[in-house]
Design goal:
The structure holds two protein chains of two kinds. Chain A is mostly helical. Chain A has helices spanning 20-23, 29-65, 83-89, 92-123, 130-142, 145-155, 162-169, 181-209, 213-221, 226-237, 239-254, 258-264, 269-273, 284-294, 298-325. Chain A has one domain (92-325): MetI-like fold (Orthogonal Bundle), CATH 1.10.3720. Chain A starts with 19 loop residues before the first helix and ends in a 7-residue tail after the last helix. The longest helix of chain B is centred in the first third of the chain and has 29 residues, at 4-32. Chain B is built from 18 helices and ten strands. The chains are: A mainly alpha, B alpha/beta. The interface between A and B is large, with 47 and 56 residues. Chain A: It is found in: Cell membrane. Chain A: Residues 98-319 form the ABC transmembrane type-1 domain.
């Protein structure tokens, strides 16, 4: 708990007066006070102005659009109240997309974060060529997502894919990866893990370096094994970071679109926006894309975007609660 | 505010706010600033840059140079994007009133969606292009006309259907290889299936009769007098017996194991061309260039026969001028030039897109035009015949979405996800939801 609460504190202590002495006698008290009161807002203003223009306004405008029968091309967009939402909640394909998103999210996020933790733990010790290892971890992340998906789609190719060639070799039946729900989710989760495991490992590593070495030394003297130290010291000490990565990863996995889109493009043109011939791997973001940018139904897509936003909030909140309750062996 | 110190202080205080406001303003300006500037035609001497937005190569590059001979002040820049992206972006650019090119190509799969919104485009009648109506195949001309009679787009090419086939694979399977004999094998789709079965019995394991049923069902539907939409823009997939017949034939082809199960326009499809994974493929005129490009190693092995089931059209494009174009007059002139009979003939000879101007069809330089890649096939004669026999079909506003639903249905059958009956039921349900 105390660790988790540390984040907001920097705002609360009384601000130091860096320019108090400099401004000195020349400035009158009210101007000084005005400066003290207004300047901080001025300094943070750029962000908030930009956020208002590119974050808040689109958010509210999307809500407004979602109440209309708004076709991208037509000039008349009649107001229809909550009809889009009613239609959306009755649309089985929307819930199918929600399920796929969650499924792919869990399949990719859970192994990814565990693996990242282990990798970070392994790297959190004096090693030769440390920088090399760390850069290597980040490499998959800086690779363009299109390149990653194209290459993985070839690996998972039905006729000439490497994975199927290997399965053939060990005597297992070939898999048509795009044809089935489970297999397509596994394939897409693999692509996501490939890109994001190293990134999360680096964040964990940074947090681990801030854990005081004395605690480990004491634990070593007490005879704790490396695994025990990971579980008993490292994880509780970096819990805020874990919470952060869980939230960021959850948000990220709720927005997966490029992977299923390009993965489906291996089946046919039409199956790429529908995420497979039977929507086996159509995610929420892809569903939104299909409605908004293939059918040009912006009102409906906006409604989907808002429901998706609320779902993200719910899922992130749930994950936050779960992770916050996670207890290690060390009571800090 | 006499004291300079205070002035500086306030400057320091305001600077970030002003900067941020300016940033925001300029950002908005990028979106809204260049709103439609209508009609103010520039002085002839003024330097003008026209942009042309297309999907893929239309073979226009040499034509631009020629256009510049009569319009030395005009510079032309061509932008190309992938098929689906191009039309998506165009819709977005039209909706926001900014970002569209001066001349935009629109494929027939999308054309009625756009002509339904004629106010987003320049009415080309303003620039006298209605005089071109007589040049065109009537149905092609009508496709470019908006709901209110405005001329939204002028046609470039038509996609008369033909069937390309691999002579070497046919020979191996003991089938005739001469194009007339091959055409005689399959006057109907049933006979095409029979030929496919013979081929399958004799061919290598890695080679199938065709790529996937997606393009074939599209062709079969295109051959019917009424397709997926009736003349009043109602979706008639459920009630049109021709659509169901095309579906049943496609299912039959899957059952008979004729399909290589490789979707069109996928990376595996490109590999399939190179590896010779399929022996026949539906090829509208514009596809010949694509085959030539993908199957470089099979030059001279491809040939072109007539398509089973009669003439039909698949594909073709119109050139439009969005309302927001700053130089609509010059853009219209460019459209007129690029779609002229001479230009269309030149494009056909360069890359294969077949003209939509019937007066060209019987001209000797078209009739006698052959392609070595296709074993010297007289492509001019083949596609001229295909275009002449065409019966026009009305295309509806969401043609693409309906086709996707049908194609996905066949995909589910092919992947073994559903029985044909289940898949068809789901197609009908999907199509019902397309508004």
């Amino acid at each position: 708990m105390p660790v988790a609460h540390r984040a907001p504190t920097p705002e609360t202590p009384p601000r130091p007066r860096p320019d108090g002495s400099r401004a000195g006698a020349a400035t009158s008290p009210w101007r000084h006070r005005l400066d003290r009161k207004v300047s901080p807002y001025a300094y943070v203003a750029p962000f908030f102005l930009l956020f208002a223009a590119f974050g808040l306004f689109p958010l509210i405008y999307t809500a407004w659009v979602s109440l209309h029968d708004w076709n991208l091309l037509s000039s008349a967009n009649p107001f229809i109240g909550l009809d889009n939402y009613r239609e959306l909640f009755a649309d089985g394909y929307f819930w199918n997309a929600a399920f796929n998103t969650l499924s792919i999210g869990v399949l990719s996020a859970a192994p990814q974060l565990v693996l990242a933790l282990v990798l970070a733990h392994l790297l959190n010790r004096p090693l030769r060529a440390q920088t090399l290892f760390r850069i290597t971890l980040l490499l998959p992340n800086v690779t363009s997502v299109v390149a990653v998906v194209v290459i993985f789609s070839q690996l998972f190719g039905r006729d000439f894919g490497l994975v199927n060639a290997f399965l053939d070799l060990v005597g297992i039946d070939r898999v048509y990866w795009q044809a089935h729900v489970a297999s397509s989710h596994v394939a897409i989760a693999t692509m996501i893990m490939w890109r994001w495991t190293g990134y999360n490992a680096l964040i964990y590593l940074a947090a681990m370096q801030a854990v005081p070495r004395e605690i480990y030394e004491a634990a070593t003297i007490d005879g704790a094994s490396a695994a025990r130290q990971l579980w008993g010291i490292t994880i509780p000490m970096i819990r805020p970071t874990i919470i952060f990565t869980v939230i960021v990863t959850t948000i990220g996995s709720m927005q997966i679109i490029a992977e299923p889109l390009l993965f489906g493009a291996q089946v046919s043109n039409g199956a790429s926006t529908t995420g497979g011939t039977d929507r086996q791997f159509q995610t929420l973001a892809l569903y939104l894309y299909e409605k908004g940018f293939r059918s040009f139904e912006f009102g409906y897509a906006s409604a989907a975007a808002w429901v998706m936003f609320l779902l993200v909030v719910v899922v992130v909140g749930f994950n936050y609660l779960v992770v916050r309750r996670m207890r290690g062996g060390l009571d800090v | 505010m006499g004291i300079p110190r205070t002035g500086r202080r306030i400057t320091r205080l305001l600077a970030p706010m002003v900067a941020a406001t300016l940033l925001t303003l300029t950002a908005c300006g990028g979106g809204g600033g260049s709103s439609p500037a209508s009609g103010d035609s520039a002085a002839p001497a003024e330097k003008i840059k026209l942009t042309v937005g297309l999907f893929g190569d239309f073979g226009f590059k040499p034509l631009y140079e020629e256009f510049r001979k009569t319009h030395p002040n005009i510079e032309i820049e061509e932008r190309q994007a992938a098929y689906a992206d191009h039309h998506t972006n165009l819709a977005a650019h039209l909706a926001t009133g900014a970002g569209a090119a001066d001349v935009e190509g629109i494929e027939v799969g999308f054309i009625s969606q756009f002509t339904a919104q004629p106010d987003r485009f320049q009415d080309l009648r303003q620039y006298g292009l209605d005089k071109r109506q007589g040049d065109y195949l009537d149905w092609k001309w009508q496709q470019g006309v908006g709901a209110n009679g405005a001329v939204v787009g002028l046609g470039t090419d038509v996609g008369g259907l033909a069937m390309c086939y691999r002579t070497d694979l046919f020979k191996k399977a003991g089938l005739p290889t001469k194009r007339d004999e091959v055409s005689a094998l399959w006057p109907t789709w049933d006979q095409y299936i029979e030929t496919g079965k013979k081929f399958g019995a004799a061919a290598d394991k890695g080679t199938k009769f065709f790529d996937s049923p997606g393009e074939i069902i599209r062709a079969m539907i295109a051959q019917a007098p009424v397709g997926v939409y009736d003349a009043q823009d109602n979706v008639v997939v459920a009630s049109n017996p021709d659509v169901k017949k095309a579906w049943d034939l496609s299912v039959q082809m899957i059952k008979d194991d004729l399909s290589a199960k490789i979707g069109a326009w996928t990376p595996e499809w490109n590999t399939g061309f190179a590896k010779g994974s399929f022996a026949t493929i539906i090829c509208p005129a514009w596809m010949t260039a694509y085959i030539q490009d993908q199957a470089k190693n099979a030059a001279g092995k491809w040939d072109i026969a007539t398509v089973p089931g009669g003439a039909g059209n698949a594909g073709g494009t119109h050139l439009t001028v969005p309302k927001q174009s700053k130089h609509p007059k010059e853009a219209a002139e460019l459209v007129d030039f690029l779609t002229s009979a001479d230009s269309q003939a030149a494009v056909f000879k360069a890359i294969g897109n077949f003209p939509s101007i019937p007066a060209l069809y019987d001209q000797p330089d078209i009739q006698n035009f052959t392609k070595d890649f296709f074993n010297g096939a007289p492509v001019g004669k083949i596609y001229a015949d295909a275009a002449k026999n065409l019966k026009p079909q009305h295309l509806g506003p969401k043609e693409g979405d309906v086709r996707t639903a049908i194609g996905n249905g066949l995909g589910r059958v092919e992947q073994g996800q559903q029985t044909p009956e289940q898949a068809w039921a789901q197609v009908l349900k999907d199509v019902e939801n397309i508004k």
